[in-house]
Amino acid sequence: MKLIDKVAIITGAGRGIGLETAEKFLKEGAKVVFVDLGMNNEHETVKTLLAQNKDVLAYDVDVTKRDSIQEMVDDVLKKWKKIDILVNNAGITADSQLLKMTEEDFDKVINVNLKGVYNCGQIVAQIMAQQGNGVILNASSIVGIYGNFGQTNYAATKWGVIGMSKTWAKELGKKGIRVNVVAPGFILTPMTEKMPEKVLDMMKGKSPLGRLGTQEDIANAYAFLASDEASFITGAVLSVDGGVVL
Ligand code: NAP
Fold this sequence. Notes:
The protein is α/β, with parallel strands linked by helices. The chain has a single domain (7-238), classed as Rossmann fold (3-Layer(aba) Sandwich), CATH 3.40.50.720. Helix content is 48%, strand content 15%. Bound molecules: NADP nicotinamide-adenine-dinucleotide phosphate. NADP nicotinamide-adenine-dinucleotide phosphate binds next to helix 1, helix 4 and helix 7.
């Protein structure tokens, strides 16, 4: 097991890639803190894990609200004494072309996908710096690297996450903290299931591997980067996209 006794906070862990990553981390021996909106009443899998597993904590936290992040972090430290890994996975979309995008939709996506990563990263990095070790993994997207029709706001946040992560890697390396980015391609999750069938088929066709990614593909990448096997990797952007853009 790669992550024995590591304490990992995963945001957006109620479903999709976040939930898959949290379950993978548990299998690899980590203690996992599930962070999501509406965690107390909506997310059935998490409720079941919480009831069955002593290595699970769950918090209803909005990553745009610094006070509630701080309260969660304080409580985790009280219970488990340290934080080894933060996965900033929570993310949203509110798509439309530039000429039709509302300021409200622009701000909403920036607040969760970019400021949310800053909020959680800054608060948890303070603890990791005191510990002298830690790993921060941030969710970008190939859309952040290459752009995508209808995703001005989303692409801006995902490119921003890369710049922020490289900066953190430079600032925090001497404090024993590694910072890396995972850039998923097109992955079948509740977020992408909303897309029309023909768009999904088109995405499949773009990969030399001829398929969409699975949540497990991304969870495996996070588990590797979180583990000591990646101890000399920082500031990297790992595309997990089936070679969609080569
Ligand atoms: P998802 O299925 O929509 O899950 C996102 C999770 O984040 C949900 O549980 C959601 O909570 C939570 N969340 C949203 N806003 C939040 C907030 N303010 N505070 C706390 N939690 C919040 O998404 P996904 O497809 O698994 O994607 C996960 C990450 O990977 C995202 O950052 C996404 O941009 C990135 N990504 C995904 C793909 C893809 O193809 N799926 C590709 C590239 C990158 P609720 O359930 O309560 O809404």
